[in-house]
Amino acid sequence: MTETAQVVKTAAPVRRREKKRRNVFDSLIGRSALQILAVVGFFLLWEAAVRWGWLSGFLVGQPSGVLRNLIGSIANGSLFADTGYTIFEAILGFAFGTVIGSVIGLALWYSVFVARLVEPFIAAINSVPKIALAPIIILWFGTGLLSKVALAISLTSIVALITAYQAAKDADKDLQALLFSMGASKQQIFKRVIAPSTLPAIIATFRINIGFALVGAVVGEFISSQHGLGHVIYVASSLYDLNTVWAGLFTLMLVGFLFYHLVEVIENWLLPWKQQQGGTQINV
Amino acid sequence: MSSPKVQLRLNGMRKSFPGKEAATQVLDGLTFDIHERDFVSIIGPSGCGKTTVFNIIAGLVDPDDGVMLYRGQEVESLRGRVGYMMQKDLLFPWRTVLDNVLLGLETKGVDPKRALDTAREYLSTFGLSGFENSYPKMLSGGMRQRVALIRTLVLDPDILLLDEPFSALDYQTRLYLEGILMEAVETFHKTVILVTHDIDEAVALSKRVVVLSQRPARVKAVHDIALNEHSPIAARSDPRFSGYFHTLCAELDIQTRKSA
Fold first, then answer.
1. Hey, which of A133, A197, A246, B30 would disulfide with B13, CB 3.0 to 4.6 Å?
2. Does the distance separating the beta carbons of A188 and B103 come in below 8 Å?
3. A210 and A256 in contact (C-beta within 8 Å)?
4. DSSP strand pairing (B159-163 vs B191-195)
5. Which CATH number fits domain A62-271: 3.40.50.720, 3.30.70.1450, 1.10.3720.10, 1.10.620.20?
6. What counts of helices (H) and strands (E) characterise chain A?
7. Smallest Cβ distance to B94: which of A182, A188, A196?
8. Looking at the complex, does the CB of residue B154 fall below 8 Å from at least one CB of chain A?
């Protein structure tokens, strides 16, 4: 008795391995603070470097000048007009490109023969840098809205097509077999297995294609246009007006950023069954 | 005892699959009968073509040769009339429990309102009320397989094809689901063909056991199982249980030794 008591008394308590502690900044507020700090620091450093003559304001621009420029173009309304124009082109190109590409990609599931037939052509088209088509597209569709939309479609549709086709090919064979054994027709299998199981992949391409649609719109504007952020950037850079170039670029960045998060909202709305797996990672 | 009526007859089924070098013959003139309201287990060595038999019956695979007779009528397959259940639950992840149960009824074109009523009724019979709007990934393995069983039964199929439906589950859940299956088969008067690796399960649940040979598969033996009890636990304590068990084990053992 006394012996055991003795053991309990003298035994050193077992030290548990210390739990991994989360970084103190690892919360929404903490992370946001760090992110804002990084951005503010970057611009302050840039501003200071130009003011103290370490960098040439003529070649890199100056944050205060960019800000003044932004405020000015917001005040006279030109920023909203140009941004709106570019967004309109990009959204049209994105929407048509995604729909056309996805529909063709899914349709290829219907016929293995046709799919095999056209596969090399799709690969060939995909390997053409679509931007190189821009001069021809402008020749065909003019210098207005249509050519920018067409350029954006040429960029986005092929991504949507390949993704949709691949996802349709990869759709769970067992689910198809099960439905087939229930007597389902090909249309029913398409509607109940192929379409819903390709949806996540198609939505994933939204993220990429939003970017591509903006590329199409801006490059189209570079080549020939009277409006849009691409036009603003192009004209300003040919005048060595770096502050205006930056103002246009930052606006484009903001637009892309907002769209990216819009896709997230759409994803959560369309794929409720994909939710709540959370961003858990093994704690190594 | 009058001879039982034959519901499904497979006669001389042959099937080979093209391989890299030579075609693999999987079924070599497979012939057996399924009686009305039968419960037949098919056991055999791994890879002997048990699943191929099911795929032929369900119309997923065309046989090279052989005849299938359903109640005396020659048929190509029983596609649309079987309830196929596999080891994987195959619940559609983007469909809720209720929508998964409705899957077959929708495919069959049953009136949506009637389908909904039927689906709800089955869900409540099998104790899954309250889970209608859950997605499959929120359920346990046993519950998912229960949903799969409901989805199969709700179609009121002529024959249930169960391809190792419980083999991915733990033993307790498995006994529980075997019990549910037996009750359902009794209640709905179903004919069942069960493919299993588990001799224990085959003896406990079946009226008859078909033993297949090594590939290319032929019927090696058919055993009638005459246990008084067919509830999974009671059957396992029947005095004749271990006799059947050992007979079947011996039959499969010889096969494995030959192949070694």
1. B30
2. no
3. yes
4. parallel
5. 1.10.3720.10
6. 13, 0
7. A196
8. no
A182 and B80 within 8 Å at the Cβ level: the answer is: yes
Is B60's CB within 8 Å of A179's CB?
A: no
Q: Which residues in chain A have their CB less than 8 angstroms from residue B93's CB? A: 273
Does A175 contact chain B (CB < 8 Å)?
Answer: yes
CA distance B82 to B88: 17
Would you write out chain A's pLDDT as a tens digit for each of its 284 residues? Answer: 455 555 555 566 677 766 666 777 888 899 999 999 999 999 999 999 999 999 898 899 999 999 999 999 999 999 999 999 999 999 999 999 999 999 999 999 999 899 999 999 999 999 999 888 888 999 999 888 999 999 999 999 999 999 999 999 999 999 999 999 999 999 999 999 999 999 999 999 999 999 999 999 999 999 988 899 999 999 999 999 999 999 999 999 999 999 999 998 998 888 888 865 555 566 66
Chain B, residues 61-100, CB within 8 A of chain A, namely 79-82, 84, 86, 88, 90, 92-95
**DSSP-assigned beta bridge partners for residue B162:** B85, B194
- Does the domain at residues B1-78+193-260 carry the CATH identifier 3.40.50.300? yes
Q: Could you report the predicted ipTM of this complex, rounded to two decimals?
A: 0.88
Contacts of A199 in chain B (CB under 8 A): 94
